[in-house]
Every structure is written in structure tokens, then in C-alpha cells.
Amino acid sequence: MIIEIEKLHLFYTEFHALKDVNLSIPEKSVTAFIGPSGCGKSTLLRTLNRMNDTIPGVRIEGKVELQGKDIYSSELEVEYLRKRVGMVFQQPNPFPKSIYDNVAYGPRLHGVGKKSELDAIVEKSLRSASLWNEVKDVLKKSAWSLSGGQQQRLCIARALAIEPEILLMDESTSALDPISTTKIEELTRELCRNYTIVMVTHNMHQAARISDRTVFFLNGEVVESADTQMLFSNPVDQRTEDYISGRFG
Amino acid sequence: MNLPVTNKQGGPPGKSGKWGKHVIEEARGRAFVYFCVLLMVVTIFSIVFFIASRGLTPFISQGVSVKDMLFGLKWKPEGNPPLFGALPFLFGSFVTSVLAALIAAPLGFCASIFMTEIMPKFGRTALQPAIELLAGIPSVVYGFVGLSVVVPFLRDVFPGQGIGILAGAIVLSVMILPTVTTIGTDALRSLPSGLKEGSYALGATRWQTIYRLILPTALPSLLTGVVLGIARAFGEALAVQMVIGNAPHIPRSLFESATTLTSIITLEMGNTTSGSLHNNALWSLALILLLMTFLFVFVVRMLERRVKR
After folding, report:
1. Closest residue on chain A to B117 (Cα)
2. Which value does ipTM take for this structure?
3. Which segments cross the bilayer (chain B) (predicted)?
4. Please, what CATH class does the domain formed by A3-245 belong to?
5. pLDDT tens across A19-68, in order?
6. From residue B117, how far is each of A93, B26, B186 by CA, in Å?
7. pLDDT score, position B198
8. SS3 A179
9. If contacts are CB pairs under 8 Å, which of residues 54-93 in chain A contact chain B?
């Protein structure tokens, strides 16, 4: 178990967004968070790399441990945490720089300055995101000239360039067309051989297709957490069954 | 549609034929807007035409050469022969404006970043109104403050009388600070929020995000503010005139008196008769000012195009 979440509560000023979440996330696998809008699945994802820190009024109780270390302890630098826990967002958000500079942005932040090293990292990351063949001749072109699907894979490459252990994907295919979505799903399956992937999706079929474990959220609570096959074929909780059979959400 | 309803004015229903109410309303609105646009265009072209026709007369029919005006060092319009060298004014205008921009740009950028990134709430509630206030202060007040604060300070600290290029530039820099800051703040606020998140998610600190991502991205917009600031400084007459000393020569140091295009126009225009060579030569200076303004607008357009790309 690479991440252990214990008795986690999260408040947006008064609103109790996450209620007593207990969850373990296994290493080198894909874990999918599913549930209706506003159920807290994205909020939980963003607590894993402390992106909620930037939102004023957020209060967190409980413990989130990454390999046995509390990520909310004052000894851990948030920048160091985010280097280990990468994130890909819902909307592709490449920087208005060249493709090369987008991927090199992270390594440069963390002190890689040598051109040869950067070149190697950029190529490796773009290959891992299966984008290299499409962009290898246009590395100096603006990242904004790419298509939406390519931009999202560039964002994945950008996240991989700092060699995280965990990759968080926040509905990363919901703004993309079906072909791009398929590509990123395939990519996710490949990446989970080397990375732990935690994804939020509002698409149950996507969770069923590519995740190893699925966690079902409702109103800020974890209703059920199980192997994906188990959860979809044989849900324990009535609410899970109602949701996956399409009775609400 | 066929229900017997009356409209609000109580008129008969269903009479919205070819000349129905909305058609007339539409036509009236359109006529009004067209009239306003026409008025504006006519005004602008009239100004340009007027200044150009007066300003070009010395070159066309009164025997002054463009070269002498742009590069001549002596301004003696009543002399014999009269001399119309405007280089000292051009030089003074340029140096004070650019110097003012060099002082105001870093301050303005920092203020913008402070207001958007560091303390958005305090920035919006306290700093923004203060800066807007700064923009509303009349230029004579700036000039007066310059004369009673900046000039004595410069006189005490540096050699010379205190009045001169640097004093003018300092006063101007405060005057254009609101322009630079306001445009900079708007530019930073309009950046897509995903950018910053993307940077933080890669483990960047706030400072790294600001100088590696935000500043480079917003730079063309920030420079737009600076150019507009220079344009404003270039056209400012009163405040500069009060502290620059109005000596028509090219200064050898920042602490020497100089003068600007606008100063010379305001100082001498009242003492000339319309149509005289001296009067027309002042219009030529105004024409130069106008052309400079066009140049600044052009530069701003170029920068904006870069933003869009």
C-alpha cells in the first residue's frame, strides 16, 4: 500500500466535503474514484498532492500517509510532495511555451540544467506518454498548436518528467474526443506498470475498463472500495448497485 | 400570437408589420450609434487634418527644412535668420518618458504581481482604489509635489539645481504608474487559472511560478502597459514643465535643465500670432507629437497581436 488514508475529514469553511474517509491505495495499479458530481472524489484526489492548500477556507482532519510518512506534517515540504505525486487535470493546461519547454519545466524547477540531460528527459517522457513520434520534429513549436488530445498527453509527459511515484488524473479524458480518450486509457494501462495511478472519472465504463480497484463515493463518504471486477459484478452495498446499474447519478 | 393582448403602451395588438415598433426601434438605435461613430471619426480626422495643415506649412511654403527641424540644435524663432532646431525638445521628451517608464515598469509589475498573486484580497480592496486615485490626481498637483519634494531632494543629494531631466522623469514615473499597474493587473488576472495549478502541481514554489511562468506569459501585455505609459508621459506637459527647467539645449547630465516638446508648445503658443512662422513651427512640433502617438499605438497593436498568438 503506497497511500494510506485514515479518518480523513475535509471542510470547505462550513461544508463537510469528506466524511471519515479510510482508504488504502495499492502500488503500481490503477485506482478509480467514481460517484456522482459533488460527491467529493476530486476533493479527495486533490488532498493527495495538497492542491487543496491553495483554496482558502479548507480545513483537514485525519491522516494521509505516503509510504508511511504523513503528507500533512510540517516536516514535509509541499513542493517535495508534489514532485513525488504528479497530477493531470481535467482541462489540458499546457504552458504557453514550446513543447520542449513544457516537458522541461518540471526538471528545470528541480535543478536539472544540463542540455543533454534535459534532452534525454524530454524524449523519455514524451515516449512514455506515447507522444514522441507525433512531435519529435516540432519540439520548438508552441504547445498550444497541438490538438486537445495531444495537449493532454503532453501534460502527462510533463508530469512524468519529474519522475513521480504516483500520478493523479482528475477526469483527464472528459474534455477529449473518443479517439483521444482511448489513447489515454491505453496509456494509463501501460503507465501503471511503473507508476501508481489514481484517477477520478465520472464515466463508470472507463473505470470498469481500465482500473484495478474502484472506490465508489457518495455525499463525501466512501461507500464501497473493492477490486474493480468485484465492485461491478457483485457490489456489496445497495447504493453501489443502484449507481452502477444507472438508477441515479 | 393571435390572442387579443394589448402591449404595454396600450396600443392595438398585432400591428408589427413592416413598420412595426421593433423595426423603428432598431432603426433609431442604429442611427444613433452610427451618428456617434461618425462624430468620432470626423473629430479625429479634423484634428489630424488641422494639425497637419498647420504643421506642414513651414516646410512647404515657409522655407524651413525638415532636416533642420529634426536635427537642429538651436531654437530661435524670432532670430535673424530664425532657427527652428527641435532636437533638444525631442531629446528631452524622449529621455524623460523612457526614463520614467524604466522607473515605473518594475514598480508597476511588482505592484501587479502583489495584487494578483501575493495578496489578492488586500490588493483588490485597498491597493487598487489607491492606484486608481493616483490616476485621478491633476497633473498640476504632481508638478507641485515634484517642485516641493523631488527637486529639493535632488538638489541636496546630487550636484546642480535639482530641476532637470531626472526630476521630470521621477514625477512622470509616478504619473504613469497607475497605467502600468492597472494594465498589468488586468493581464495577470486574465491568465487561465489552469496555468498556475499546472505549475504548482509540478512542485513549483510561488516565486518559481511567478518568474518562470506568469511573467513570461504576461510579458507582452505588461509591455503594452509600459508603452501606453510612455505615450502618456510623452504627451504630459504641465507637471514636467514645472520641474524640468525649460532650457532649450541638450543636457549633459541627468541633473541639468532641459525641456520637452509639450513644454515649448504650451510656453510659446500664447505669444505668437496665428499664421506666423513661429506659430506654424509650434504646430510642426505638435505634428511630431501626434506622429509619435501613432507610433506608440502601433507598437501597442503589435504587442497585442503577440498576446493573441
Report:
1. A54
2. 0.91
3. 31-52, 83-109, 130-151, 163-188, 209-231, 281-303
4. alpha beta
5. 999 999 999 999 999 988 888 899 999 999 999 888 888 899 999 999 88
6. 19, 45, 12
7. 93
8. helix
9. 54, 79-83, 86-87, 89, 91, 93
